[in-house]
Amino acid sequence: MFQALSRTARAPAARLLAPRGAPLAETVRGRKSRSDPKAKSKAGRIKHPPPVDPAEMLLLKKRFEEYNLIVRALRLEFKEEVLRRRYEQEVGSLAEERQKQEAEEHRALMAWNDQENERLRKIREQRVKKEQEEAERCRKEAEILQQQELANFITEKEREIEHLQEESKNFITLENLDQKIEEVLDNPKNYNFAIDREGRVAKRTILQ
Fold first, then answer.
1. Per-residue model confidence as pLDDT tens digits over 120-133
2. Pfam families from the xrefs (predicted)?
3. Does the residue 102 lie in any domain?
C-alpha cells in the first residue's frame, strides 16, 4: 500500500521510519482516496439532474444552430477573401487578361451553341415533317384498306342474298304445297341404309 506523508511531518524522518520498498504518497487535505467508503451522511442521497425547460432548450438549440451557420458563413467569406487577395497578389496583371480571354471564349462558345441549336432545330423539324407525312400516308392507306374491306363485305353479302333468292324459288309455300307433296310421293327416297368405312352404301332397306 502507499505510505501517506503529512505536510507537517519532516520528510527525512519519515523516509527513515518508512519500510524499505514501499512507495511514498503525500496526502491532500479534504480529499479521500479511491479505497475510502462513501460517507454515512451521503449514503442515501440520489443525484437528480437539474430540470430543463423544453421551450428554453428548443430556443437555445435553434440559436446555437443559427450561430454555427453564421460563424461558418463568415469563415468561408473570410477564407474566400484571403484566397482572392492571394490570387491577385500572385497573378497580378494576368488576372484581367485572363478574364478577357475567358469572356471571349464564353462568347465564342455561346455563338457555337446557338449555331448548333439552330442546326439541330432544322434537323428536328425535318424529322417531324417526315413523321407527319408518314403518318398521313399510313392513315390514307388504312382508309383505302377499310373501304376495300367494306366493298368486299358488301359484295359477299350481295352474293349471299342472290344465292338465298335462288334457293327461295324452291321453298315450300302455300301456293306450291300440293305440288311439292305430289313430287315427293312420285319420287320417294330411302335414307335407311348402312355404309362401310369408305363411305359406300353397303345395305339398304326396301321401301314398302
1. 999 999 999 999 99
2. MRP-S26
3. yes
- Whether residue 134 lies inside any domain: the answer is yes
**Inter-residue contact 190 to 204 (CB < 8 Å):** yes
Secondary structure of residue 136 in the 3-state scheme: helix
3-state helix, strand, coil in the chain (%, to 5): 65, 5, 30
Which contiguous run of DSSP H or E holds residue 172?
Answer: none
Query: With contact defined as beta carbons under 8 Å apart, do 55 and 64 qualify?
Result: no
pLDDT digits (tens, 9 = 90+) for 81-95: 998 888 777 766 666
Which residue range(s) make up the domain with 133? 98-164
| CA–CA gap between residue 110 and residue 163 (Å, rounded) | 78
Torsion sign over Cα 184, 186, 192, 198: negative
In a domain, residue 120? The reply is: yes
DSSP 39-71: PGGGTT----PPP--HHHHHHHHHHHHHHHHHH
Q: Do 21 and 2 form a contact (C-beta atoms < 8 A)? A: no
40 within some domain:
no
